[in-house]
Amino acid sequence: MTAPSASKVDMAYDLIRRRIQDGAYTPGYRLVLGPLAKELGVSTVPVREAVRRLEAEGHVEVVRNVGATVRGLDPVEYRWTFETLAVVEAAATGMAAPHLSRTELTEAARLNDAMRAGLADLDPIRHTRLNQRFHEVLTGPCPNPQLRDLIAHGWTRMAALRSSIFSFVPERAVESVHEHDALLRLIERGAPPAEVEAAARAHRETTLQTVLNSQKGSA
């Protein structure tokens, strides 16, 4: 059998992954190969290969006699990933704080204001993207490149586990914006890096606990 072209596999992969991350395909959604192949104008072979890639990345779960479904949130894996991200991102925020320029602080405040403006009609995916960009600005000047690499890996892993925490706990969006305000005030007044790191870590750990509590409630 002829192997599917890489471009067709990539096309199917990009489509399915985007829909998972945008929330169009929610946890438990069944990925039926035939309709997807028809939509893309390809055979089912590249779609199957794309699903295998997504399974390897943790986006999709394949169960015998059931097929491929969008993976739900694994509370244990989510916790370990988020705790690791909380530690490394907080450390990087503390180290970066003395090096943040006025331009970067203004950009961080603008991003947080954009999040604030969207609270009344919350779009979880947009809010998550703005939130990630906010933290990228605050950790960008961190002089330790290995910490920056760990943060990037953490965000990638979080995306595989779930596209947006604010889909699970929309009420956390309001609290998060207020905590961002407090974090920016600390940095702007020149608080010691250790104090900035502690605030950044508490911010992340509060989010984690809110998500875990919501999962317990739903269970």
Question: Structural class, judged by helices and strands?
Answer: mainly alpha
Strand order of the main beta sheet, please? 1-3-2
Strand content: under 5%
Shape: elongated
Estimate the mean pLDDT confidence: 89
Unreliable residue runs: none
Distance between the termini: 45 Å
Taken together, the total number of domains comes to 2
Please work out how many helical segments DSSP would assign.
Answer: 9
User: What is the radius of gyration?
Assistant: 20 Å
Q: Got a strand count?
A: 3
For the record, what CATH class of the largest domain applies?
Mainly Alpha
For the biggest sheet, the summary is: 3 strands, antiparallel
Quick one: CATH superfamily of the largest domain? GntR ligand-binding domain-like
Share of helix, binned: 55-70%
Order of helices and strands: HEHHEEHHHHHH
CATH topology of the largest domain: Four Helix Bundle (Hemerythrin (Met), subunit A)
The CATH architecture designation of the largest domain is Up-down Bundle
Explained architecture:
- This protein has 219 residues and is mainly alpha-helical.
- The chain folds into 2 domains: 6-70, Arc Repressor Mutant, subunit A (Orthogonal Bundle), CATH 1.10.10.10; 75-218, GntR ligand-binding domain-like (Four Helix Bundle (Hemerythrin (Met), subunit A)).
- It is 70% helix and 5% strand.
- It has helices spanning 6-22, 33-40, 44-57, 75-96, 102-117, 124-139, 145-161, 172-188, 193-218; strands at 30-31, 60-63, 67-70.
- Strands 1-3-2 form a 3-stranded antiparallel sheet.
- Strand 2 and strand 3 form a beta hairpin.
- Helix 1 (6-22) crosses helix 3, helix 2 crosses helix 3 (44-57) and helix 4 packs antiparallel against helix 7.
- The protein is elongated and about 60 Å long.
- The mean pLDDT is 89.
